[in-house]
From TrEMBL, chain A:
<comment type="subunit">
    <text>Heterodimer of an alpha and a beta chain.</text>
</comment>
<feature type="domain" description="Dehydrogenase E1 component">
    <location>
        <begin position="26"/>
        <end position="324"/>
    </location>
</feature>
<keyword id="KW-0175">Coiled coil</keyword>
<dbReference type="InterPro" id="IPR029061">
    <property type="entry name" value="THDP-binding"/>
</dbReference>
<protein>
    <recommendedName>
        <fullName>Pyruvate dehydrogenase E1 component subunit alpha</fullName>
        <ecNumber>1.2.4.1</ecNumber>
    </recommendedName>
</protein>
<keyword id="KW-0560">Oxidoreductase</keyword>
<dbReference type="InterPro" id="IPR001017">
    <property type="entry name" value="DH_E1"/>
</dbReference>
<keyword id="KW-0670">Pyruvate</keyword>
<feature type="coiled-coil region">
    <location>
        <begin position="290"/>
        <end position="317"/>
    </location>
</feature>
UniProtKB/TrEMBL annotation, chain B:
<dbReference type="GO" id="GO:0007584">
    <property type="term" value="P:response to nutrient"/>
</dbReference>
<protein>
    <recommendedName>
        <fullName>3-methyl-2-oxobutanoate dehydrogenase (2-methylpropanoyl-transferring)</fullName>
        <ecNumber>1.2.4.4</ecNumber>
    </recommendedName>
</protein>
<dbReference type="InterPro" id="IPR029061">
    <property type="entry name" value="THDP-binding"/>
</dbReference>
<dbReference type="Pfam" id="PF02779">
    <property type="entry name" value="Transket_pyr"/>
</dbReference>
<dbReference type="Pfam" id="PF02780">
    <property type="entry name" value="Transketolase_C"/>
</dbReference>
<dbReference type="GO" id="GO:0009083">
    <property type="term" value="P:branched-chain amino acid catabolic process"/>
</dbReference>
<dbReference type="InterPro" id="IPR009014">
    <property type="entry name" value="Transketo_C/PFOR_II"/>
</dbReference>
<feature type="domain" description="Transketolase-like pyrimidine-binding">
    <location>
        <begin position="11"/>
        <end position="186"/>
    </location>
</feature>
<keyword id="KW-0560">Oxidoreductase</keyword>
Amino acid sequence: MAQADASSPKSNYNATKDELLKYYKDMLLIRRFEEKAGQLYGMGHIGGFCHLYIGQEAVVVGMEALKKEGDQVITGYRDHGHMLACGMDPKGVMAELTGREGGYSKGKGGSMHMFSTEKKFYGGHGIVGAQIPLGTGLAFANRYNGNDSVSLTYFGDGAANQGQVFEAMNMAQLWKLPVIFIIENNQYAMGTSIKRSHAETHLYRRGASFGIPGTEVDGMDVLAVREAGREAMEHARTGKGPYVLEMKTYRYRGHSMSDPAKYRTRDEVDDIRTNSDPIKKCENYILSGKHASEDDLKEIDKEIKQVVKEAADFSLESPEPDPKELFTDILA
Amino acid sequence: MFDDKPETTRMNMIQAIRDAQDVMLGKDENVVVFGEDVGYFGGVFRCTEGLQAKYGKQRVFDAPISESGIVGAAIGMGAYGLRPCVEVQFADYVFPAYDQISQEAARLRYRSNGQFTAPLVIRMPTGGGIFGGQTHSQSPETLFTHVSGLKTVIPSNPYDAKGMLIASIEDDDPVIFLEPKRLYNGPFDGHHDKPVVPWSKHPKGEVPTGHYTVPLGKADIVREGKDVTILAYGTMVFVAETAANETGIDAEIIDLRSLLPLDIETIVESVKKTGRCVIVHEATITSGFGGELSALVQEECFYHLEAPIERVAGWDTPYPHAQEWHYFPGPARVGEALKSVMEAV
C-alpha cells in the first residue's frame, strides 16, 4: 500500500477550511457510529452479520465530496459508511441494525440491506458482487434519461473476481455509461489475502481489456480520493463512459463480528492504524493548516458522540416490527 | 497389548465434515478440496481447518470469489478423473453457479452417453436460525431436486454428515451436499431463546474414526410412533422431535437425509402404518419439497390416509432479518399441525 506520511501532509490538494472540517466530521461520524455498532453487537442488541467500515472512511467521504444532486450510490454489505456519507439518518441506520420498526427497512433487511430513494442510495447488497451490474443499470438509466448523473458503484477486492464484474464492465464501456467502479481494496476478502486469490493484484487494471481507464488511489487520504475521483467523475459525467478507481484501503476490524483474524498479524493492523489512519491524516491537514485547534476538534468529537448516542438510544427504543410486516412488500 | 484407541470420537457437525474430507484426502489422491476461504483460512465455518497444512496447497486451496468458476472448474476436473469436493460459502451464494450445476454437472453423463461424468460434491451451509437475513439463510433444496441428474442430500447430525459426505465424495455423480448451519454446533430444538445443547450430549455426536459410509438414498426413522408420520430433514428433524414431545402425540419421525434419491419405501411403510402425515421444512412452502412429498404420499398411500396431509414450512416471504422467528417453522407451528391431523377424523 502506498503509505503517505501522516505527519507531512501534501499541500497541493487545495482544500479549504470548511471542506476539511466537513470531511473530518463526516469521517468521524462513521468511525464513532461503527464503534457504537460494535458495542451494541457485543451487548447482544444486534444479531447476525455486521461488517464495520472502520479504517475505510476516507473512501466514501472523499467521493461524496464530488457528488452532485442526482448521483447514485450502490455498494455491497459493508455499507454503513456509505449510508452515513450519503446523509442518511444515523438513527434509521442503527435501528435497522437492531432490527426495529424505525430502521430504514423496518428491520426486514438488517445490516446488509438498506436503501433510501431520497438520498439515492440503492443498497446495501449481501451477495458479493451482485450490486455491480445493478450500478451499471443505474448508469444506463441516467444516460437513457439524458441527465448527467453518475452511478458510484462500490465493491471490494473480493467481489472484483466475480464473473459479473466483467459482464458489467463490458456493457458499461460498450454503451459509454456514466458509472464509476470504485474498488475498495482493503486487501482481504474475508480471510483470504488478495495475493492468494487474484492473478492480477493491481485492481485498477480490471477494466483494461475493455479500454476502461483506471487509477490507483491512496484510499487512506480523503484529499487523494477526492483528487482522483474528480477526474473519474468528469470522465463519466461528460459522456466518456466508465472509470475504475482502485482505492487502496484497510479495514481495522474483522470481516464481520466473528473473525479469528489469523490471516494477518496484529503488527500489520497496528502499523496502519498508527501511520496511515485517514482521520488522523485529515486532523493533520487541519492542524498544520491552522484551520482549527485541538480543542475545536475535541468539541467536534463530543458533538458527534452525542449524535451517535442518540442514534443508539433510538435504535433500542424503537419497537420491534409488527408481525404483519413479515408479509408486506413482497409483491405490489 | 492394550488397544485403547477409541473407535469413536465426539464431534460436532463441523468436525465431522472436516473429518470426512480428511479421510477421503488421505484415501484417494484424486480428491481435491477448494472454495472461498477454504485453504489458508480454513473455511468460514471452519469445515476445512487444518486440511491445507496436512495435504498441501495442491490439494486444498483457496479459490477467488467466483462461484460459477469454482463449480465449472470442478466439473472439468471431475470429467478428467479427479474428485473435487468444493465449498460454496453459503447456499445463498450458489446462484451464479446454478447454470454450471443444472446444465453442465447434471447433464454431462446423459449427453455424453455415459462417457463423461461429473463426480463432484458441492457442499454448502443452508437454512436460517443465525440471524443471517435474506442472503445468508435460504434453503434452496428444491432448485436442485427439480434438476434430473443431481443427487441432493442433507444430513442432520455429525454421524450422518461424515458418513454421507464420504459416500458423496465416492459417488460417481454430482452431489449437492447441504449442511444445515444451525445444526453445526448442536441439535437445535427450535427454541431459540434456550441455550444451545452441544453435540457432545447427543448420541449422534459419537462419530466413528476412519472410513465409513451412510448410503445416499436411505432415510432414518429417528423416532418410532404409531399416530402420525412426520417427514422432515435438516434443522427440522429436531424441531419435529420437540413438537412431538411437547404435544405428547405419538409421532413417527423420518429424517429423509437424502431428498434425491428419495427413500420412498420407508415413507410409504410408515404412513400406511400411521395413516397420517405432516411434512416439515424450512424453505418457503410454495413449490417447496413438501409439495413433492405430499403428492407422492397421496399417490402411494391415499387409501390409508385418515386425514389430509399437512405441510409446515417457511412462509412465502423472503427470509426476514428481525422477524426470523416469525418465519421459522418452530415447534409451536409443527405442534399445531400434529394436533390438526389428529383431530381431523
